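Can anyone check this?
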Amino acid sequence: MATTQPVADEKDAVRNAVREGYAKIARREGSCCSDTSCCGSGGGNDVARAVGYTEAELADLPEGANMGLSCGNPTALASLLSGEVVLDLGSGGGFDVFIAGQKVGPQGRVIGVDMTPDMLGKARRNTAEYQARTGLDNVEFRLGEIEHLPVADNNVDVVISNCVVNLSPEKPQVWREIARVLKPGGRVAVSDLALFKPLPDDIKDMVEALVGCVAGAVLVEETERMARQAGLTDIRLHPKSDYIDAETEWDAPLYEKILEHLPDGARPGDYITSLNVTATKPEA
């Protein structure tokens, strides 16, 4: 089922709501788990473990880089190799950038892009600690929108993203940008939130649901369609509803609110899933 794209004013309103919401999260110390959009009684590391991050990956992170915003582990999904150039869409405080940096090593490079200046400032401050802990100088952060990436054509080996694409009011444009910046033969590894079936309208109107990556989510099959229309191939989608079940069990405020607006007997996991998406840009 195709989705209707917002008009220009609506797109700006969505971006402003997301930017303001994530600026508030960035200005807090540590994780966002006290925020209504985030992870309830599960801490940032609990969220990360639940979606597949290892203790070794979490141990070497700068303080405050993990804000509990993950819904998957795209760095593992991508099977990153030494020497690769990686681009992280919506890099936040640098969580996945710093993990990817250690995987690609001194000959590799990781670029984080985020549209929220507060997040960018946090990530750049975290970079000094990353360099001190790892001895690596292979990461950078750029201000920009994921619909208009500040990256040259055919420039990166891998694009990753963690619970960000669904926030965009122009998702087909995001997928076209992913295809543009990838080198021929390059690959995509995205963890995102998606829908098994449409959410009730009153949930989609909740600002908390938007910042919490739910209101902007589209159907699983729509995600596949957008990636294919962007020219990507070998598209594989793997829904993982256990993430939503964990958030519900942790009494995350956002999911408690969603539950209040669902029909009797329905659960958030009946509608929402964490979705791992992999794809490739053709060689020719």
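Reply from J.R.: I decoded it. The domain at 8-280 is CATH 3.40.50.150 (Rossmann fold).
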